[in-house]
Amino acid sequence: MIEFDEQLKRLVLKLVYYGPAMSGKTTNLLTLHDQLSLEGRGELMLLDTTEDRTIYFDLLPFFYVAPSGMKIKIKVYTVPGQVRHDATRKAVLQRADGIVFVADSRSTGMSVNYESFDNLEKNLSLVGLSIEQLPLLVQFNKRDRDDIVTEDEIRRAWGGTGLPILMASALEGWGVLETFRTILELTFDSINERFGLTNRFAVERDDFIDAVLKPSSL
Fold first, then answer.
1. Residue 113's domain spans which residues?
2. Do the domain assignments include residue 218?
3. Which position among 27, 138, 198, 200 has the lowest Cβ density within 10 Å, counted as fewest Cβ atoms?
4. What is the rounded distance in angstroms from the CA atom of residue 186 to the CA atom of residue 164?
5. Confidence class of residue 57 from pLDDT cuts 50, 70 and 90?
6. Measured CA distances, 10 to 2, 6, 74, 160, 204 (Å)
7. What CATH number corresponds to the domain at position 151?
8. What is the pLDDT of residues 93-113, one digit of tens each?
């Protein structure tokens, strides 16, 4: 649920990386954090659970102030991949504004991807969110591996969902910023549709995204 205060012109968004264990959710966030400029990121926070990790960070340690005066902050989370941590998954999904589903490109991961996606749909319903209405994309990660399903096969299998599908290798660092930019665009478009901000704020969307996704000089 979008945290939006029109009177104070204050907007806080929560984006969640979801997917099966070992698909690369944590690597996505670690790589994203490394690729952003220092002024555009907060500190990484780590919640340890047995055999899995949940990490999160504020994309902006302080509110970004758009030319319209809108103050914006974005929080980014992963969920644990292990089924035993399903309660934590549901807790992290609460009040999510956009979802990146990180799928495993390996041939051995295809059935697990479907199971995890079904779990996502179920858990969203349990926390009062609709998978049809929430901004959502699918990133097929681990494209650097040899034992992967081809992109054509992926698009044949998942194209019917109507969801944006992106390819990435979080380990090698490509596709990570593109994935994040896309989910930001989808989420902002959803905000504009829900709150009627098109005339006052939508025109600033790309400027905001360019500002916060300025690459690191390290």
1. 3-212
2. no
3. 198
4. 10
5. low
6. 11, 7, 11, 37, 15
7. 3.40.50.300
8. 999 999 999 999 999 999 999
